[in-house]
Amino acid sequence: MIGNKLKGIFFLILGVYFFISPLSASAHTDNSEGYSSISLDNHGLRYELSLDYLELARIVDLGITSGGYTSAELSEALEKNKSLLEEYFAEKLTVFNQGLKLDGTIIETNVDRRLERDYANITFHFPIEDKESAAIQITYDVFFLDNDPAHRNIVTYDLGEKTGKFVFTSGERDLTLGKDSMLGQSVPFIKLGFHHILIGLDHILFIIALVVTSQKLIDVIKIMTLFTLAHSVTLGLTALELVHIPSNIVEPLIALSVAFVAIERFLGLSDKYRFIVVFVFGLIHGIGFAGALELANPTEWSSLWPILTFNVGVELGQTLIILLLFPILLFIRKFKWSSPIHIAVNTAIFLFGITWYFQRFLS
């Protein structure tokens, strides 16, 4: 009988592990996320755009078909194909001043690597004669109809008295600078935080491991409150660039945290030590959350509002996972076979964490 139970646990672990293991263990994004910084200079509007390089290369023929190129080679391809880029963005990134369309030109290109991806950084200039009376409207259609309807672009703009944050999505493609309300700035970042937690399998498994090893709802509330406080601190500090830890250090640590919380109850740690563990790992996860919230001019305290609302979205995502999971656990615990199920789930989560750790550490 015991042998059959062990076999059942073993095959359940393998089934869960191999069903989910093909999923990416890298950056927590399922789309080609982009970033924009908009400002005024002495001659007009400066628009700094960052996009996933390979996604861009699938649409504009840059002579780049896959990864493996050096940053210098990627930068050279961007510079050499400025005319093709200008032709594409003339239709996909349109800027109006007082209702009149402005003609933009690319004045600078370069490449950097973040979130384990190469990003094409393209700076446009749109001439404006009278900056004092500028009334800017932007329509952003990059990628939505080409290859990625889930694409998002996080915008920071600073036109002197007009500052703000925005998120371009397939449903929100138009922005009038300085006209968006506090509510208008809040909703996109709440959605961004909610989406981020639901696509981050490592974060989800971390939460599941904490919930599975908790006996009472009050235990879940205590643990998740502590985790929330910890990741809120580092999310804010990292997004404001008051703390900076490279992703090649943070991402393996997040994976390791998933593996550890899956087995820490079996190690016999007291609740006191468990709280310390959760708090420390919460600090690490907060830095990971901040990776999805890159804001231009992040040291400005006006960035606190999008950080706060993004965190609200993260909390809503976590709450949804707990509300769906904990009643199922309470039901399962009524049966004798609940213990093998818990062991199998925790073992599978441990395997995910260890696998991701070595993938991220060696990448």
From TrEMBL:
Domain of life, per lineage: Bacteria
InterPro entries in alphabetical order: Put_HupE_UreJ
Record keywords, A-Z: Membrane, Transmembrane, Transmembrane helix
Protein biosynthesis is among the record's keywords: no
Listed transmembrane segments: 192-212, 224-243, 249-268, 275-293, 305-332, 339-358
Keyword Membrane (UniProt): yes
The protein's name in its UniProt record: HupE/UreJ family protein
Lineage start: Bacteria, Bacillati, Bacillota, Bacilli, Bacillales
